[in-house]
Amino acid sequence: AFASEARHIFIVGQNLHWLATTIDAKDALRRFLQADRTRQVDILLCDPRFRCGVKAWTRVNPTSGDYNYKSHLREAVRSFAQLQKDYVGRLTVRVAPLVPIGVWFVDPNTDQGLLVLTPLVNGGDKSSERHQVIVSRPTNQVAFDYFWTNLREVFRENGLSKPLPNRTPLDFDTIRELAKVLAAFLKTLLWG
């Protein structure tokens, strides 16, 4: 996506550690933004302060070898916050309590918008080995608009500076809301 002529890229992921810390990926992001001052990159990832979300992803992706979800998330948030200072108004990084999927949108506000969806399977492959589904606005506008509308709203509602409590009880209402989000995601993914 960074090698394209895109104007706007919106990236959603659980920790996006590879993008925040890998020299090649970070350089590609910088080159994309430096090539044209009208380009915009928005990033949404999990909030490391939201213990329930961090705990959930730690269970899905348990620590092994160099991989530790919690420390990778914290490192990514710090790295993106620093990078955001270099590209004020063109790189916006926000966090949300729980990010259930990985998604890249390329020029989502255009008729030719693309969505690259990365479903995450419990205990499945790590980021570089995951299978992806590509949805274009022209070929499946309903699915494209569903993800774009909902994830854009989550992005607008959250931010790095928004304080979250250290402890959030996982009550029945929260569980029910999480179940609705996951059910809608699976329904769209499986049945369009």
Descriptive terms for the model:
alpha/beta, 192 residues, 6 strands, 43% helix
Provide a brief overview of the structure:
The protein has 192 residues and is an alpha/beta fold. The protein has helices spanning 17-21, 23-35, 51-60, 69-86, 141-157, 172-191, and strands spanning 8-13, 40-46, 91-96, 102-106, 114-118, 133-136. The protein is built from 6 helices and 6 strands.
User: Helical stretch count?
Assistant: 6
Number of strands: 6
What is the 3D shape?
A: globular
Question: What value does the Rg take, in angstroms?
Answer: 16 Å
Mean pLDDT, as a whole number?
A: 81
Sketch the topology as an H/E string, one letter per element. EHHEHHEEEEHH
Q: Give the neighbour order of strands across the main sheet.
A: 3-2-1-4-5-6
List the helices and strands and how they pair.
Layout: E1 8-13, H1 17-21, H2 23-35, E2 40-46, H3 51-60, H4 69-86, E3 91-96, E4 102-106, E5 114-118, E6 133-136, H5 141-157, H6 172-191
Parallel strand pairs: 1-2, 2-3
Antiparallel strand pairs: 1-4, 4-5, 5-6
Protein model, in words:
27% of the residues are buried. The protein is built from 6 helices and 6 strands. The chain has helices at residues 17-21, 23-35, 51-60, 69-86, 141-157, 172-191; strands at 8-13, 40-46, 91-96, 102-106, 114-118, 133-136. The model is unreliable at 161-170 (pLDDT under 50). 43% of the residues lie in helices and 17% in strands. The protein starts with 7 loop residues before the first strand and ends with a helix. It has 192 residues and is α/β, with parallel strands linked by helices. It has a 6-stranded mixed sheet, with helices on both faces.
